[in-house]
Amino acid sequence: MVKQRLLQNAYRADWRPPLALRLPAHLFRRLVALRRQAYARGLLPVYRAPLPVIVVGNITVGGTGKTPLVIWLTQTLRGAGLRPGVVSRGYGGQARQWPQAVEAHSDPALVGDEPVLIARRTTCPVMVAPDRCAAIRALLARHDVDVIISDDGLQHYAMARDLEIAVIDGQRRLGNGWCLPAGPLREPATRLASVDWVVNNGGPAKPGEYLMRLEMTQAVNLRSGQRRPLADFGPVHAVAGIGHPQRFFAQLRQQGLRLTPHPFADHHRYTAQELAFDGEVLMTEKDAVKCRHFAHEGLWYVPVQARLEPEFKTALLARLDALRNTRKT
């Protein structure tokens, strides 16, 4: 509860943290800079994959919408004739051995919920490990891919990358602008100047940012697979165990739904009892991958589809094509 209140305050642009938080925040910022410099100067080892690596990450805590962008990227690259593979940390996974290959039917408790969602939506090869370099090696040993997408990993400097995409929440942006624990930043705001692209989830987008919108129009029943327009639902319970649950609730309200919100912690592991509400329940697709084994007829998930400006797709494919041509020579 204390952590949640601190995060809420951190995302208030007008909140000035107390001295007890500002002092460790200064230390954290300095350590982050020293660590990055150590990798840049070769003082710490860096693994470079033989294929182009695209990192999709953020510089804030609390969720920004990286996973829908990763799914969009895999679909876009496939549409361009490429063979993408995805690596991820597998946050929350309790597997005893790493790396782990992720399939659509994999257990989220072992490999993490987001990788399972990516595998289900894309059917691309997905490999997870706390050490993303090990995940890349395992992916290349098992699959014929020609580009690698890292789901998160902007701060994983042991992994060399060719392109960086930072995702920010269009509404909360960078909060009060302080680094942890006084604010929501994993790295200083100046880090955004060094990435290749900044994608703004939800807008309004500032100059130099590409706008991403997450569209939702229907729900899918966890048990039967039936699809149903959101407009057909009456009052519902809405469940979200994501980095920023209020975003999901706001999107449902924008669809005209009347709902009772039930926010949970990010990556929460649900029990059947927690979802035994009187009435129909709408949840995120990320939550749904953890609830299929006890799904009843009243549970529905709402898939989202990322939509990005055509100019971003053009810029991405042009840069990637140039990288691949350079590596061939």
Model description:
The protein has helices spanning 2-10, 19-40, 66-79, 108-111, 113-122, 132-142, 245-254, 285-288, 310-328, and strands spanning 53-57, 84-88, 100-102, 126-128, 147-151, 163-169, 197-201, 209-215, 218-221, 227-229, 236-240, 259-263, 281-284, 299-302, 305-308. The protein has 329 residues and is an alpha/beta fold. α8 links the parallel β13 (281-284) and β14 (299-302). α3 (66-79) runs parallel beside α5 (113-122). The model has no long low-confidence stretch (mean pLDDT 94).
- The helix/strand series, from N terminus to C terminus, equals HHEHEEHHEHEEEEEEEHEEHEEH
**Global structural class:** alpha/beta
Low-confidence segments, ≥5 residues, pLDDT <50?
none
Amino- and carboxy-terminal Cα gap = 55 Å
Q: Strands of the biggest beta sheet: in what spatial order?
A: 3-4-2-5-1-6-7-8-15
Biggest sheet descriptor: 9 strands, mixed
Strand proportion: 15-25%
Number of strand segments: 15
What level of helicity do the residues show? 25-40%
**What is the residue-mean pLDDT, rounded to a whole number?**
94
**How many whole angstroms does the radius of gyration measure?**
20 Å
Shape: globular
Give the count of helical stretches.
9
